[in-house]
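Item description
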Amino acid sequence: MKAKGTRSKKVSASTLLSVEQLRRRCDPESLGFESTNDVPPLEQIVGQERGIAALQFGLSQSISGYNVYVAGRSGSGRMSTVRSEIERVATSSPLPSEWVYVRNFADPYRPNAIQLPNGRGTELARDLERVVDGCRREIQRAFESDLLAQNRGLALRSFERQREAVIDGLRPEAERLGFVVELTPGGIAMIPALSPGVPMSPEGFGLLPNEKKLEIQARGQQMQERMSEVTGVLQRLDREAHEAVRAVDREIAHATTETVLDPVRRKWSSQPEVVQHLDEVQRDLVDYLDEFRASEQDARPGANSHPAYRRYGVNVLVPTSSGPGAPVIFEPNPTYYNLVGRIDYEVAGGGSHTDFALVKPGALHRANGGFLILQARDLLTNPFAWDALKRSLRDRQIRVENLTEQLGGLPTMSLKPEPIPLQVKVVLIGDALTYSLLYRLDEDFRKLFKVKAEFSPMLDYSATSVQAYAAFISQQVQEHCLLPFNREAVARLVEHGSRLVEDQERLTSCFDAITEVIVEADSCARQAGAPEVGGGHVETALVQREYRVRLVEDEVQRMMVQGTIAIDTQSRVVGQINGLSVLQLEDHAFARPTRITVQTGMGVDGVVDVQREIKLSGPSHSKGVLTLIGYLVGTYAKSNPLALSARIAFEQVYDEIDGDSASSSELYALLSSLADTPIRQDIAVTGSVNQRGDIQAVGGVTTKIEGFFAVCKARGLTGTQGVIIPRTNARHLMLKPEIVEAAAAGLFHVWAVETVDQGIELLTGITAGQRRADGSFPPNSVHGLVSARLVSLAERLARYGDYLLQTVPSRTDGRALATNGRRE
């Protein structure tokens, strides 16, 4: 038997939203132009004043640690804004110094770094190349001159006299023992003499009798010791002669190189490190003169590629940039080596070798003295790159070290270039989640990136924002060579910007999504042969975009229409209501009406969520169900016990449910079951409820309304169907034009409620009822019917409990059995 109550029709009229409230329309006439041909392209992003101010603050700080993390969604204009702001600051910033690597002649495995004024690194490299060419040319000329031969002859003459004196001193002793002294290519030879001064031939020596041979050999043994002394003296004289000749060569080489290097020294006199390096180059040229001269035949004039020449070269890490001000570097692939540089190796002669000329710069070198822009995700996903960046920023210097030396099992000999001081402003671009993780998990991040510049995904809807949309469309038209967009098309895109954020007072700042529609609308206009893009072309593009991704939604809608998924859109049922949930796919979100049923009866279990019992309920949904108990206690259990056992179930739902947007629907169904009053099934409901009965805002209301409308349209619009939403969600409606048209024709409705009372009156057509002075409710109201039912359940449970206590035997432990194992 269905309960009867007092019918209420006032609420329906007061909560019904007007057609104008269902979608904010952008009036094309208010734009002030005919097409984008009349609109200058967008030059600066709008609506991101907070993020831009934070970015500007970070860029203005010269203190270490004030690097910037730019947080925001992809497509919100983060990159273009960051680049434009940094380039503006960089233009007025001083030019950075240049850094070069040169050979460390004292320790070739530790190349020296030299700091130079901007633009002079390449100049030094050219000067050193000319020095090497000049030294090669002048040394060759000097060593082919008669002067060198004369100096060498003078240096050797005294040694020749000393050699002759030593040999002349040996001859008398040799003659006394019957030998002749002769000089041979192999040294001094002692030859038996036929007569004084006349050497014996080998044949003559062979004809001598053995006794004579033994005698000569015995006398030769007597000369051996003396011969060893003389040989040692001669070898020493040869060495001294060689050193004397080398000294002459060095003196000539020093004088020759001095004439080449002296003008270069004077030119670089203001750079002490360069002058010191030139002195070391000169000393090395003189010390390794033979190697330098030997390599001349292998090198082409003007090309210092030979290793003997390359040792005197200059490795300019980062040549002078053509633009003014400090460098602005964006590294799209921030690997370890792309950040801090690397040491290359050359393979030759079956092995590999390296030197200072093979030290390659990284992004930090190129950005030193300026600004470096990095994508946070790319940086974090490259092994060792994040640690290398932190280490460089923390130590304020760049160390070029190959990972093979750091991670190798055995130590290997490799270059250890001198670290280069680092002064750079790093700007990381990423999302808010990455920032949160780094902030909480990495202590160094908080010290190194003290400034967060957050870009909002939305703009306030204003005349300025609308004009910015028009300027952005004009920019895209010019950039991609598209057809002009007339004002109707611009207005339709502005409306789409509000729809993307589901807010009539906001516009999306993720312009990538707008760009996609712009390009596709241009395609639709070209296919139609139109001279410009109109509002209809934009609408066609939006419809086609949705059609491409809504296969799953169409299949679900088909099952609802066929009855496979049970959804009632016309009758009235007790304890049953149509809730609305959103299914989020990778590239598409759509709403699915869901039948929610409630069964109530006598008991002390309270409200039981079936989804929670089988672990298919998320924490937010469980919270919403528990809130219902608070509402029941506050409304109906002020003076009476709440003797209730209720079961709430989402029918034909087999995935986890989360969120509290169904809590108002569950409460309406619960009240309907308790009051034994049927609920309209042609109305779907969404909204959260608190313990006081206030209806609170939820997400996705536009999608939810469109999902229920699609089911009603497929089954046939009756003129009574609609959706109840929270009043605070009214500003979030940006419904499709066809729904607005159906509402204007009275075929579909959207009601916005503030309290449970307004919602239950709409669903049941019965007055909710106001609490009277004695705490009771009018008997024919919904609350009166629910209250009476709860009192009846409590009384029946009490009588049933007394009966059990009288008839059920006592337990062995002396305690009486009670309902559900409890003693009441």
